[in-house]
Structure formats: C-alpha cells, structure tokens
Design goal:
Length: 100
C-alpha cells in the first residue's frame, strides 16, 4: 500500500464514509465552479483550477476506497474501452478529412 493509499484510507476511517461523501460533493462542486469561471470568462486562473483538481482527486481516491470492487473495475474498463473507440473514430474522421 502506497503512502497516499494509507493516508486516504486513514481519512475515511477517521472521519467516516458519510462525512467524506459530503466533503467529496463539496470539493467536486468547488472544482466545477473554478473550471467554469476559468473556461467561460477567465475569472479563475490555472492555479485555482489545479488546487481544486487536487482537492477533488484526493476525495475521489477516498470514494474509490469506499466503492472500489469488481463492479467498479468492470465499469471502469468498459468506459475506458468506449472512450478509446470514440477517440479512434474521431481520429479516423480527422485523418480522412485531411486526405481529401
């Protein structure tokens, strides 16, 4: 177990799953807010977005410790394969448009 995994697991054990789920909602909302401000009108700088990304990532790791099981891994694999197909199809369209 890595030091990050250990810290994340300790946080879930110390604060409890319910509290950490609520904290995850808050951190993900803050990321959405910073990203929207940055993308729409530049009111949020890259450092703000990065800080919120890090907070959200830590909470996602905690959620993963709560929910990670075979079903999670299967769904992750399925969605990654679907994303790869979409990227490959888009690349084919781009490549064929460039040939013309």
């Amino acid at each position: 177990m890595s030091i990050e995994q250990s810290i994340v697991r300790q946080a879930v054990e110390q604060f409890g799953e319910h509290k950490q789920k609520l904290k995850a909602i808050s951190e993900l909302a803050e990321l959405i807010d910073a990203l929207a401000k940055n993308a729409i009108d530049g009111r949020s700088n890259d450092d703000d977005v990065i800080d919120e990304m890090v907070d959200a990532q830590i909470m996602l790791w905690q959620l993963k410790t709560m929910y990670c099981n075979d079903k999670f891994c299967e769904r992750l694999q399925f969605k990654l394969e679907r994303l790869k197909k979409m990227v490959d199809q888009a690349k084919e369209l781009t490549d064929s448009a460039m040939v013309r």
